[in-house]
Design a protein that fits this description.
The chain is mainly beta and about 550 residues long. The chain has five helices and 34 strands.
Length: about 550
């Protein structure tokens, strides 16, 4: 046998041993590729006057978007908004900073369930850091605490876990009322950390309206915004510590990852399947997702609180309707949801045929939702409540303009050789979450001056346990790291005590919704101050860990 013949025989053996067994798989029917569905659901509204620049509030529906939590790649918000600073002229160039957050699931959520959580989501310029709540930020490294001290606890009745504010398990379609109003809890400063840049006195305070808690919960310290200007003085006086908030903001649902899979059939047609994705279903079969989106001028609350702090009559905390206006929804909307695999370039990702499934709906000018095509979507009565579930299966089609789109199809119309029917979207087995812990150094702001009572423990519906202590309000770690002198902290303490005495957790603050039911916070997070600590003290979480 010649050398050439030996070489050909060797190559034939390689083909038979290594390549031939793969021939039925490569590019063949049933080769399943994992992907995702992502994009935005858009909620247009009429513009309001720019004078309503002292904050906003909304009622957003809370529900289990996916039937099974798909693991820590899952990230999506429910309907919400972004609050940016308002400027008299052009905004600073190459600078992104806002308050976003809201209801949802995030990749760094450690104790996730199908029920969403709430985070505050303050973003320092260009995401150099962010603050999600008391003791929660863009890092978990207390040696480099980016955003971890950015939010101060205000309420003596609400415990805030570092993993996010839990809703009661099983929440399904109820309305979670929240918003931010500027309060003059501190005074303006001409210097910041000893440098010649100012810090304003806009303490953007989170107000909640839920079934078991109402009123102010926590606030972004002005220093969270202003300290970033030490490295970039051009932004001094341009961030939310000093600036009002633009009232005309986007209302959307941002989805970054819903699991999907896709495969081809014997004819080369491409099919996809998404994880069961649902929306809340009302009595008429429609979904209400947003309600009473309001914006405020300083007349709504700031003016009365300022007068109160200066010696006037106590402010009730109730929002003044004369300083309020609401968004009007015209009943229009769009979607940019796309289904794709990692190998597909961004510009080639095909859109979901959303308009075939849902029609935007405004049953009244202050309410937004969807009317569903029940020839494609399906009603589902879950253990949590009534839902409408989107079709799971889609086929990729291309029109005459060479534009691709995913159109819904029934399960029976998906060829068996794709193998999509065998896919199961289940909660994966993941490692036990690491606990959140706070510094134990006796010299740290967590220990000096330290708590006055504790430890206490709260057992949450997400199967975690929060350890917490009671701190004097001005002695909480966030305020010890907020560039405040002792005198400035004592002034802030006095103002907090005024609020604690006069604004209870069942008072009237945000105007109530005109429809639906209010959502409920995890009851384990509603706490009672120990005797003698009812005024001027707050609960601070020091650890959150999985239940044993």
């Amino acid at each position: 046998m010649s050398n050439r013949q030996c070489l050909m025989l060797f190559i034939l053996c390689l083909v038979l041993v290594f390549i031939w067994p793969l021939a039925p798989v490569i590019g063949a029917p049933g080769q399943i590729e994992e992907g995702e569905m992502a994009g935005y659901l858009l909620v247009p509204h009429e513009k309001v006057e720019e004078a309503y620049n002292a904050g906003f509030s909304i009622y957003a529906a809370a529900w289990p978007l996916l039937r099974a939590y798909p693991g820590h790649r899952f990230q999506t918000g429910l309907f919400g908004t972004w609050m940016f600073a308002q400027y008299d002229g052009p905004a600073p160039e190459k600078m992104y900073s806002d308050i976003e957050g809201g209801l949802g699931w995030w990749r760094d959520t450690r104790f996730a369930t199908e029920t969403p959580k709430f985070i505050m989501g303050g973003v320092a310029p260009n995401f150099v850091e962010w603050a999600n709540g008391p003791g929660a930020g863009s890092t978990r490294d207390w040696n480099e605490p980016k955003g971890l001290y950015g939010v101060a606890q205000l309420s003596p009745w609400l415990l805030w876990p570092p993993d996010g504010l839990n809703l009661k398990q099983g929440t399904c379609g109820q309305l979670f009322g929240y918003g931010y109003l500027a309060l003059p809890l501190t005074d303006p400063k001409s210097t910041t950390a000893g440098k010649n840049v100012p810090t304003g006195n806009h303490c953007w305070t989170l107000f909640l309206n839920t079934r078991n808690f109402k009123g102010p919960a926590a606030f972004f310290t002005p220093y969270f915004w202003s300290h970033t200007t030490l490295d970039d003085p051009r932004l001094a006086g341009m961030l939310l510590d000093s600036r009002p908030a633009g009232p005309n903001r986007a209302m959307q649902m941002e989805t970054q990852y819903v699991p999907s899979v896709q495969a081809k059939d014997a004819k080369g047609e491409t099919y996809a399947r998404i994880a069961p994705t649902s929306f809340p279903r009302g009595p008429q079969g429609d979904s209400v997702v947003l309600h009473h989106a309001a914006v405020y001028s300083k007349k709504a609350l700031w003016d009365s609180v300022q007068a109160w702090f200066e010696g006037g009559a106590p402010a009730s905390g109730a929002i003044d309707p004369l300083g309020t206006t609401m968004y009007s929804f015209p009943g229009k909307g769009g979607a940019t949801w796309r289904i794709y695999t990692p190998s597909v370039p961004k510009e080639e990702r095909a859109a979901l045929a959303w308009s075939s499934l849902a029609t935007p709906l405004a049953p009244d000018p202050s309410t937004f939702g969807y009317r569903w095509n029940y020839e494609l979507a399906s009603r589902r009565d879950s253990a949590d409540g009534p839902l409408v579930t989107l079709p799971e299966y889609y086929r990729l089609v291309t029109d005459g303009d060479n534009k691709s789109q995913w159109i819904p199809v029934s399960a029976k119309d998906v060829p068996a050789e794709t193998g999509l029917a065998t896919v199961r979207f289940q909660r994966p087995v993941e490692e036990r979450p690491e606990p959140y812990v706070t510094p134990d150094d006796p010299a740290s702001s967590w220990k000096t001056p330290g708590p006055v009572a504790g430890p206490f423990h709260a057992h949450l519906g997400d199967h975690s346990v929060v350890t917490y202590y009671w701190y004097r309000f001005a002695g909480q770690p966030a305020l010890l790291n907020a560039d405040l002198t002792n005198q400035e902290r004592e002034s802030l303490q006095a103002r907090a005590e005024m609020i604690h005495r006069n604004w209870t957790k069942d008072g009237d603050y945000l105007a109530p919704p005109a429809i639906g039911e209010l959502a409920e916070i995890d009851p384990a997070l509603i706490v009672t101050p120990p005797a003698g600590l009812e005024v001027g003290y707050v609960p601070i979480a020091t650890r959150q860990a999985a239940q044993e």
